[in-house]
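Why does residue order matter? Because the sequence determines the fold. Keep that principle in mind as you read this record.
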Amino acid sequence: MISLRAAQCHQTDENHLKAITYSNYGPPDVLRIKEVEKPVPKDDEVLIRVQAVEATKSDCEMRSFKFAVKWFWLPLRIAFGVRKPRRQILGGYFSGEVETFGKDVTGFTKGDQVFGAAGLKLGAYGEYVALPGNYTIVPKPGNMTFADAAAVPLGGLNALHFMRLAKIQPRDKVLINGAGGSIGMHAVQIAKSMGAEVTAVDSTIKEGLLRRIGADHFIDYTKESFTASGEKYNVIFDMVAGSSYPANLRALDTDGIYLTANPRLSVMIRSVFTSRFSNKTVKFAFAQETREDLLELKQMIEDEKIETIVDTVYPMEQAADAHSRVETEQRLGAVVIAIGDRAD
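Structure:
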């Protein structure tokens, strides 16, 4: 095992690569840099040299196996490993360059700069990752660095999905609870691009950033509750797992739509009755993360309709620090790990 600090000096041969791994569930310091076998792409796979990867809250939850939403704990534990993780290389959202690909793969050329999602295969915390050619992997925006591009797919794809579900009309009043996270910041910008009047809810330190990217109003949840103001919204997009379902519904206008990205099992059950027996609609369908949607985001970025905010870029050797930064909830934007030689 190579320590995180000492790994800087270690050179790998052409058949191996460096990867940030974890062999046990636990705090950030379970992350280690290890030399592992370089993947060989199958006939239907593309091999990508990873340049940057977002360190996400999901990565932290899988590393520690502590989830804000409890109902899927058991199925995930069975899927990912009961006593220790089966997939020891995390990383689902990345940018990089195409190294090579299998004989059945089309649409890629060696050296293509791409970004995308690794799905449940994960693996983007390594210098190379092999993924099916039909996965959500598309050309990187021409006006973005690798680090910026790696911070797009998670937040952008989920935000686009939910803002479409909201069926936003110009001048709709949209509230985003938890607006300072990766998904929330993209949702603010996408809702604004649809003509909405956006209210962002988060902590004090995020007000300036959220206003800069387009929020019309800001509510500091540490000082007041948006549900107590009496204000009504056409759409509430909620990413806070422990928020009050009844209070959120009361803050909805007639025929309003409540979107929840981290639904508790009780909320999922209650949503069926709310949607059927009231004039309000609750939706929690999860994003499919398609190539078409990522290409749409790419176009929006190149048209300068939305941008991605990166808080900090850490080298591989500081992966534990990156996870700690994510877990503090004090970050102003996405936390990115530079995997390749550079992430610019």
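The first helix runs from residue 57 to 64.
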